[in-house]
Design goal:
The chain is of the alpha/beta class. The chain has two domains: 242 residues, Type I PLP-dependent aspartate aminotransferase-like (Major domain) (Aspartate Aminotransferase, domain 2, 3-Layer(aba) Sandwich); 123 residues, Aspartate Aminotransferase, domain 1 (Alpha-Beta Complex), CATH 3.90.1150.10. The strands form four sheets. A seven-stranded mixed β-sheet has the order 4-10-9-8-7-5-6, with helices on both faces. It has a four-stranded antiparallel β-sheet with strand order 11-12-15-14, covered by helices on one side. Strands 1-13 form a two-stranded parallel ribbon. Strand 7, helix 8 and strand 8 form a beta-alpha-beta unit. The longest helix has 23 residues. It is globular. The structure holds pyridoxal-5'-phosphate. The site of pyridoxal-5'-phosphate (PLP) has 14 residues, from helix 5.
Length: 432
């Protein structure tokens, strides 16, 4: 085993696992709405010598020597991100979405400060004030949820809650809410109560960057996003903000300095430079006209998938979607609390989804009554409306026959055949 040997020689077990993962993603349809497939160029940037370098600090202000090249790629990533979202300041160093969100809390709130976030069960994220998360433990969290009838956000109700809770910061953002957000309405609520407006666009970043969804940047003090969901970059995150601190205009530090200081030295150590190089590549891709067409197709595909499933008798939270994701309610199929079983049955048919709570969940988060799915990854693969009809029809068939092995096997055959027509990473055995 030598330093320059291939991975297949150095570690046959890991190398076989990588090959098996390549096979898994090629054979099935990936419908987890937070997942995507990065381009070959992004994968190439990830597998580079940039993984070796320590570069604590920021471009031109590093603690270690030898960072002249790292500065080039980090600056490329920053400038491209600014252009994508019209941001004044960007920090591309957060390791992932949750650490980015921690940095926002750390930068702008004191321990125990009041905060208003979106309830996890109704479509928010753990880091939006869930009691099991640091955000719910260390801050005084109030949560807004969706209307029981419409399952939509009601901005008048959020305004009322904000006036009661008097939060220092209000979150807008989603993980499982299938509709557009009104960032301007959130801004008005924040202005009314003197709160920071923080948008977490982890899921919808690609749509926001291309105008397929409203861009929150003009209405926010700070915006966080992952880079690996609809933005189709490497696993990671970034924080975008204004330079001025609206609620603390004469403070010792402005908003940009507070955010940067919270990421490093506040929470993190050295940046992951191979990932940041890959972010630069992904942002360049996202600035091309093709990426806008891609994002438009994600939404068109989601609508057709939703319509197909509803046509087959499935019920969706809010009765449909206007972004990239949707949540099936299993209640009318007699499958309340059976999200896990349905997820497993769909997996047997090579359809990858995740179980999810539904608003006002009648069962529990461990045995939820919903299935969340979305179209970013299948759209990257080149699938369009007609393929969505096949997939939607297969999903409905599996849900109607969760315990019928033969029906599931037939759906699996249809899915395998569909996927053969859309080769993923064609000609690119990653290990060959
Ligand atoms: C995915 C997601 C995150 C967390 O990202 P990780 O990279 O998994 O830490 C945070 N917020 C929202 C809204 C998300 O959807």
């Amino acid at each position: 085993m030598a330093f320059m040997d291939d991975i297949s020689v150095v570690d046959p077990e890991t190398s076989e696992a990588i090959l098996n993962e390549e096979k898994r993603i090629r054979d099935g349809v990936e419908l987890i709405p937070s997942e995507n497939f990065v381009s070959k160029a992004v994968l190439q940037a990830l597998g580079t010598v940039f993984t070796n370098k320590y570069s604590e600090g920021y471009p031109q202000k590093r603690y270690y020597g030898g960072n002249q090249v790292v500065d080039v790629v980090e600056t490329l990533a920053i400038e491209r991100a600014k252009k994508l979202f019209g941001a004044e300041h960007v920090n591309v160093q957060p390791y992932s979405g949750s650490p980015a969100n921690q940095a926002v809390f750390f930068a702008l709130l004191e321990l125990g400060d009041p905060f208003l976030g979106f309830d996890l069960n109704a479509g928010g994220h753990l880091t939006h004030g869930s009691p099991v998360n640091f955000s719910g433990r260390f801050y005084k969290c109030a949560q807004y949820t969706v209307d029981k009838e419409t399952e939509l956000l009601d901005y008048d109700v959020i305004m009322k809650l904000a006036k009661e809770a008097k939060p220092r910061m209000i979150l807008s953002g989603l993980t499982a809410y299938p509709r557009k957000l009104d960032f301007k309405a959130f801004r008005e609520i924040c202005d009314e109560v003197g709160a920071y407006h923080w948008a977490d666009i982890a899921h919808i970043a690609g749509l926001c960057a291309t105008g397929v969804h409203q861009n929150p940047m003009p209405y926010c003090d700070v915006v966080t996003t992952t880079t690996h969901k609809t933005l189709r970059g490497p696993r990671g995150a970034m924080i975008m903000c204004s330079i001025k601190d609206r609620l603390d205009p004469n403070g010792k530090k402005n908003m940009a300095q507070k955010i940067d200081g919270a990421v490093f030295p506040g929470l993190q150590g050295g940046p992951h430079n191979h990932v940041n190089a890959a972010k630069a590549v992904a942002f360049r891709e996202a600035l091309q006209p093709d990426f806008k067409r891609y994002c438009q197709q994600i939404v068109k595909n989601a609508k057709v998938l939703a319509d197909t499933m509803m046509g087959k008798g499935l019920e969706l939270v809010t009765g449909g979607t206007d972004n990239h994701l949707m949540v099936i309610k299993l209640v009318n199929k007699g499958l309340t609390g059976k999200g896990k079983e349905v997820q497993t049955a769909l997996q047997e048919a090579e359809i990858t989804v995740n179980k999810n709570t539904i608003p006002y969940e009648p069962s529990s988060p461990f045995n939820p009554s919903g299935i969340r799915l979305g179209t970013p990854a299948v759209t990257t693969r080149g699938m369009k409306e007609s393929e969505m009809k096949v997939i939607g029809e297969c999903i409905a068939r599996v849900i109607d026959n969760v315990n019928d092995k033969e029906a599931i096997a037939r759906a699996r055959k249809d899915i395998l055949e569909l996927c053969r027509g859309f080769p993923l990473y064609p000609g690119m055995g990653i290990l060959k």
